[in-house]
């Protein structure tokens, strides 16, 4: 039973473990870096529990999360309407849009094993048909808010330590510090997606569904290995 579960969910379990290990690693590395700065400034070191509950750790985590979910949100929405000829990450040219009910297997076209809301009508079908983008968008907004709140607290702690005036939340979210932290994450996410979309036109990874079959022509679009 357990072996079957692990086998059937290996991809998600692998990334869950990788996420947990990297988050724990970040907490220890961040604690060490923060303590080095505090000691250099004549302060006292923070314990690990104190650091992982601090605004400094929270803002570092939240700013990474919000940029990741923004990347997925924009990619999900952009691939509805935009295409890249030759990329397995794209629909075929001419197939842009939300597609017909028959293609999406909704309403009277739903199969017996389709999700219940796919066969429903009205609001339920509309919500379920956009539920992935809606959830990604909600997580992005919540993590962005968490970043802004934690960032305000971390920034003001530095301001007060230097005997300078703190900022309100509204002042911080239009500050250079906030947008410097935000945009440096956004640009890396957009570059990663751009690289995946374009490089997958010409390069292959045998056996991966994120790649075209090794022998597929470069112009083949929406074909997965």
Cα separation of the termini = 29 Å
The portion of residues forming beta strands comes to under 5%
Radius of gyration: 23 Å
Silhouette: elongated
Q: Quickly give the structural class.
A: mainly alpha
Total of domains:
2
Entry keywords:
0% strand; 225 residues; 65% helix; mainly alpha
Secondary structure elements and their pairing?
Layout lengths: L1 H7 L1 H31 L7 H5 L2 H27 L19 H4 L11 H4 L2 H7 L2 H31 L7 H4 L3 H27 L23
Helix pairs in contact: 4-8, 4-10
Task: Summarize the entry for a quick read.
The chain has 225 residues and is mostly helical. The chain is built from 10 helices and no strands. 13% of the residues are buried.
Structural overview:
The chain is mainly alpha-helical and 225 residues long. Helices cover 65% and strands 0% of the residues. It folds into two domains: 1-53; 56-94 and 132-225, no CATH class. The model has no long low-confidence stretch (mean pLDDT 93).
